[in-house]
Amino acid sequence: MSNNYTSGPNSGASSNSSSFVSRREMRASNMTGALPTISPNFGTERFYTGSFEFEHLIQSLRELFEQDRRIASQPDSIRCGICYLYFSVSDLHYREEGFYVCEGCQRSLGDQSVFMLRKQQKM
Fold first, then answer.
1. Cβ count within 10 A of residue 78
2. Does 105 fall in a domain?
3. In CATH, what number is assigned to the domain containing residue 90?
4. Within a domain: residue 63?
5. Can you state the percent helix, strand and coil of the chain, rounding each to 5?
6. Is residue 93 within a helix (H) or strand (E), and if so which, with residue range?
7. pLDDT tens, 4-21?
8. Number of independent structural domains in the chain
9. Is 66 inside a domain boundary?
10. Mean pLDDT of 109-116
11. 15 CB contacts (<8 Å, ≥6 apart)?
12. Is 19 a domain residue?
């Protein structure tokens, strides 16, 4: 199998070697489906409205992680069986399925039962 592509109406074996074009060159020159060229200073001259929302999301996740680590270091903390964030034992509700659940996850679950592979020990 050859890496050459024959172009034009005379693409048979009788055409001369000047009519052969590398397939790679053919794909490189064909802009159909090609991604736009990215300049070296991409993003510096443009401001997207979504970037503020993304930065806000990252900042809120950092704050959530810091709070989770702070609560996890307390002796009476335990994880919610749904969201896995740490809470004080007094802030969690133990469900009969065998796990603790925080108020937010409890509200989302409602009366729906959840099967747990590993049950948490009731404290």
1. 20
2. yes
3. 3.30.60
4. yes
5. 35, 15, 50
6. strand 93-95
7. 555 555 545 544 554 555
8. 1
9. yes
10. 84
11. 6, 8
12. no
